[in-house]
Amino acid sequence: MKKIAVGITICFLSLFIVTTAFASLTQFAGDWENVNPDTRGVTALKITVTGTDVKVHAWGQCHPTDCDWGNMQAYAYGPNVSSNLPATAQAVSVVHKESFAERLMILRSSGTQLQAATYTRFTDNSGRTNYADVEMFKRKVSPCDKQYPHPQIKFDHKDSEGRVYIPVVNWPAYDNEMFRKAPELPPCGLNTNSARTWIDIYNAATNDRIYGFCAFDSKDDMKGIWFKPTTRTGQVYIIINDRACKKTYKSNTIRY
User: Per 3-state DSSP, what percentage of the chain is helix, strand, and coil (rounded to 5)?
Assistant: First the structure.
């Protein structure tokens, strides 16, 4: 059985080593997520590289939360026996063993993505057919790595109670993640579950804060920004304050 497993491993690796495209071993490093959110296989990978030592932490699809496969020893492969492995790594292999199956995963760089070919062999005498699965992964983007445009506001209307509405025109460019509840951040008054991102309205002439919103639930709420002015006319702008990422986005100035 061991000879068969070794033979299969060599065959699978040969599928990847025939390519002439090399990748720096460090290109494998990082946090990766499956491009298919509905995958029934591996959902995420965390790959760490130190010299030629490679570790792969994998998560498989489970309900209600993903199954943690643990941090596993992995091995990198170059094009020949004298290769400079850190500079010419072509593939990385890792084996995950469970009580009922053994999974061989072959990883290789594919442009800006990572291709993962997983070969599952059942070891529980269940009669199930061994199978292969190939999936693509993209690098995880930290919420704070993403850059958003500056908000563009406009004067929309004034209601019968004197509220001036100044919606954000380019609200679709933002993510709902920006307005998630953030109990880990400082509260908004007595609200200990306020939004990650607050929006404040400023008097353009004095730069004094007029009003603000700290409990929006989604980006859709940006269409309903309003304030009550103390003067009949004036100029205002807004500042979007992403407190988690410590970033601010200032809008254009409009007259009401």
Answer: 15, 40, 45
The conformation of residue 27, written as its DSSP 8-state character, comes to: G
CB 50 within 8 A of CB 143: no
Residue-number span of the structural domain to which 24 is assigned: 2-139
Q: Find, among 114, 33, 105, the residue nearest to 72 by Cα.
A: 105
Interval 61-73: pLDDT, tens? 998 889 999 999 9
Q: What angle do CA 161, 167, 168 make, to 5 degrees?
A: 160
Task: State in Å, rounded, how far the first CA of the chain is from the last one.
Answer: 79
Q: Let me know if residue 146 belongs to a domain.
A: no
Based on the fold, state whether residues 10 and 69 are members of the same structural domain.
Answer: yes
pTM, to two decimals? 0.55
CA distances from 44 to 30, 37, 59, 66 (A): 11, 10, 5, 9
Asked whether the predicted pLDDT for residue 12 surpasses 80, the reply is no
